[in-house]
Amino acid sequence: xxxxxQTGSPENSTATPTxxxxxxxxxxxxxxxxxxxxxxQKAAPAVSVAPDAAxxxxxxxxxxxVTPTPAxxxxxPSKRNSPLTVAVTxxxxxxxxxxxxxxxxxxxxxxxxxxxxxxxxxxxxEAQDVTVAAGSASxxxxxxxxxxxxxxxxxxxxxxxxxxxxxxxxxxxxxxTAAYAVYGIRADGDDYPWAGKTSGLxxxxxxYGQCVDFVAWRxxxxxxxxxxxxxxxxxxxxxxxxxxxxxxxxxxxxxxxxGNKPVVGAVAWFNYNxxxxxxxxxxxxxxxxxxxxxxxxxxxxxxxxxASEVPLFLYPPT
Length: 318
Prior knowledge:
The protein is an alpha+beta fold. Among the domains are: 1-31, no CATH class; 152-314, endopeptidase fold (from Nostoc punctiforme) (Alpha-Beta Complex). Helices cover 33% and strands 11% of the residues. The chain has ten helices and eight strands. It has helices spanning 10-13, 19-27, 39-42, 51-58, 83-101, 119-126, 151-180, 211-222, 234-237, 247-254, and strands spanning 107-108, 112-113, 258-259, 267-270, 274-281, 286-292, 300-306, 312-314. The chain has a six-stranded antiparallel β-sheet. A two-stranded antiparallel sheet has the order 1-2.
């Protein structure tokens, strides 16, 4: 009984043919049947073979004449692609993908993307609709109901307010003057108690014979004090300084009234460092002044001047 693996055995009779056998069969025009089933499943039952038959099978087969295969039955030779074909293919394939990936709209100059709304179109589409009532169309804005105050009008208002304040202060000064003018309107006359003295300080704190000392004396006299415990002295009348040029600031610092209308008993203040006493006021607007040291004389003097020539009247202190 033949052994497995020997020629003529059932296992070898169903084994896969070698490359040489396949080439010989292809040249002979035969197509071998190759089984894809496992050899174990195709194995036929063991068959007893005579030794002579085995030896005959083991002898090589006589060479058979090879019949050439007609050209019509030969497989066509493989065609190799040229480098140019490969390059064109490599460029065409990405182009196909890019074409497929393009959006479904095109660009139109001046109109943006066809099929895509611009920002203005989107804003218009998202805006809320507003319905205006028919009656609102008849509403009109009146522009003649508003007015602005001009600079000239503001200045006029300020002047009017200042004039009213000055008039009020003058009325208060007149009342005060009436209270102080205990001697009434006096005739011209030198009643200065220290006449002739021109140096040193008087009991009122000013230099003898100066305009300020004479006016301070008249203010004390109108207040009813002619000696002893003086009502008005340098310390409480003009504590900032004794010069006549400082009297206006002293009145302002005390809060005492001043103005441009003359009042009997008031102080006529001049900006050239001089003061005088208002003795009387005429109906025509002129004033009679009494003064000391006019033009540096250190003596008593009187004169009549228009009230407009007096820069400021300092009304009697309170």
